[in-house]
Write a structure and sequence with these properties.
Belongs to the class-II fumarase/aspartase family. Residues 402-483 form the Adenylosuccinate lyase C-terminal domain. Residues 215-237 are annotated as: Disordered. By secondary structure, the chain is mainly α. 59% of the residues lie in helices and 3% in strands. It has 3 domains: 3-117 and 199-255, Fumarase C, Chain B, domain 1 (Orthogonal Bundle); 119-194 and 267-396, Fumarase/aspartase (Central domain) (Fumarase C, Chain A, domain 2), CATH 1.20.200.10; 402-457, no CATH class. It has 19 helices and 4 strands. The strands form 2 sheets. The chain has a two-stranded antiparallel sheet with strand order 1-2. A two-stranded antiparallel ribbon has the order 3-4. A hairpin with a 2-residue loop joins strand 1 and strand 2. Helix 11 runs antiparallel to helix 12 (324-348) and helix 15 (407-414) packs antiparallel against helix 16 (425-438). The longest helix has 37 residues, at 112-148. The chain starts with 19 loop residues before the first helix and ends with a helix.
Length: 492
């Protein structure tokens, strides 16, 4: 068997291919996460005197993912419905090569779901760190765009049509608001990812029996000495009180996961919370990509993606420069909701004390969300940092609508001047002037000048009324509020 025949290199998922998120969620990285959980559990038990201390070095030597055949494990996982079972058999066999007696120390008091769920959380935590970093880079770049273009007048579009004047700075700030809000939530979720450790039925029965055995003080002392190298920097000394809950808490600490109130074998909300946060990242990134795709059309030409050698070309049309970053981000954003729905449906369908199939369907969906969000965040950072803005094109497009772009302002200001003693009557008169302008029966400026006496609306006041730059509301203040609100987070 050629292992490459079974590998997924991301050929059909270019948004995540070659990214850190793709690498950190590979089959071998997940194998490593499962091995890390098993190893840290052995260290915890040895530190508490529940397994022989001299088992730890042998398990350490066997806990390398490159020692195992991922394709073979995947096939053998069909026998028990999950990859932990064959991996555990291989881990014990590999451990015996270094210390025959050490194999019996592995996996005591645990069950397959403990290992797989905890490994999934561990893999997610490792992957989320890079995603959050990319989101912060994107947010900082969007804040710079917002500041640089706070006075760049453009047209706001609602339901695809020109509506009111705005600024490109506010558009960038609104992009920032979505991206940063999603990033803050994702970072929060990353810090809440919990250990799953409930045993076969969520009662922690086997671990309780193990914890109730008399501890071996000599084994505890030796384990503390030999296992110290594997303790995370800054973590507390091993918890040796021997209680089942305390042992699980110690494992959570060593893995960098949260210690949950209780096992969550069929309460899948930790998974749905993670999935929802990843989907929000995709939605926020997708909004930016959608706008860039629209604004970069040649007939609009208001922005363009950063150029890069070999990117954006066409095999048949050499004149094209395709906005590939936005295309890939959009593809990820469109794919995300399906995976989220799958995870939520799985959580809603969980039964008994271990779900029959709904647990299994989470795995690939969650990994895909991690990859999609990771790929989208990396490309969003590049897009935001290199986005080219074309103020001249924005002014040209704004001029298509002309004075009509401030018709809302005109209605509020001029209608009362045309009431003729009948409150509200002026609105229909202004609407008539607008309709005449739309029918090319004169410019709105001239029609207004003819309709309103200069003693009620001077030429200077009319010119000011029709200036789009004078009708952008609180745009500058909103930019300041958004950028200042997320400044500390995006630079942390």
């Amino acid at each position: 068997m050629n292992p490459a025949d079974h590998a997924d290199f991301g050929l059909l998922s270019p948004v995540s291919a070659g990214t850190a998120a793709s690498r950190l969620t590979s089959d071998y990285q997940f194998i490593q996460a499962m091995l890390d959980v098993e190893l840290e559990w052995t260290r915890v038990l040895a530190g508490a005197g529940r397994v022989p201390a001299d088992a730890v070095p042998a398990v350490e030597q066997a806990s390398r993912a490159d020692l195992y055949d991922a394709a073979g494990l995947a096939e053998r996982a069909q026998g028990g419905g999950n990859p932990v079972i064959p991996l555990l058999a291989d881990l014990r066999a590999e451990t015996k090569k270094h210390n025959p007696a050490a194999a019996s120390a592995i996996h005591q008091g645990a069950t397959s779901q403990d290992i797989l769920d905890s490994a999934m959380m561990l893999m997610a935590r490792r992957t989320l760190a890079g995603i959050v970093t990319d989101l912060k880079s994107a947010a900082a770049a969007l804040a710079r765009q917002a500041e640089e273009h706070r006075g760049t007048i453009t047209v706001a579009r609602t339901l695809t049509q020109h509506s009111l004047p705005s600024t490109f700075g506010l558009k960038a700030a609104n992009w920032l608001s979505g991206v940063a809000q999603a990033g803050v939530r994702l970072e929060q979720v990353a810090g809440e990812l919990p250990l799953q450790w409930g045993g076969a039925a969520g009662t922690m029965a086997a671990l309780t029996e193990l914890a109730n055995r008399p501890a071996n003080p000599a084994a505890t002392t030796a384990a503390e000495s030999e296992g110290s190298a594997g303790t995370a920097a800054g973590s507390a000394a091993p918890n040796n009180d021997g209680g089942a809950l305390a042992l699980a808490a110690r494992l959570a600490e060593r893995l960098g996961l949260a210690d949950p109130v209780a096992p969550w074998q069929t309460n899948r909300l930790p998974v749905t919370a993670l999935a929802a946060a990843l989907a929000d990242v995709l939605a926020a990134a997708g909004k930016v990509a959608n706008d860039v795709l629209l604004l970069s059309r040649p007939e609009l030409g208001e922005v363009s993606e950063p150029a890069a050698e070999g990117r954006g070309g066409s095999s048949a049309m050499p004149q094209k420069q395709n906005p590939v970053l936005s295309v890939l981000i959009r593809s990820a954003a469109l794919a995300g909701p399906g995976h989220l729905a799958q995870i939520q449906a799985a959580a809603a369908g969980a039964i008994d004390e271990r779900p029959d199939g709904s647990w299994h369907v989470e795995w690939q969906a969650l990994r895909q969300l991690l990859r999609l969000a990771g790929g989208a965040a990396a490309k969003l950072a590049e897009l935001a940092e290199g986005l080219v803005v074309q103020p001249e094109s924005m002014r040209r497009n704004l001029a298509i609508t002309g004075e009509l772009v401030v018709s809302e302002r005109i209605m509020a200001t001029v209608a009362p001047l045309l009431d003729g003693g009948s409150p509200g009557a002026g609105k229909s008169k202004v609407q008539s002037l607008v309709n005449q302008s739309l029918a090319n029966q004169g410019t709105l400026a001239q029609l207004l000048r003819d309709a309103v006496p200069t003693d009620e609306l001077s030429d200077a006041a009319l010119a000011e009324l029709l200036d789009p730059a004078g009708y952008i509301g609180q745009s500058s203040e909103l930019i300041d509020r958004i950028t200042s609100h997320y400044a500390e987070w995006s630079h942390s």
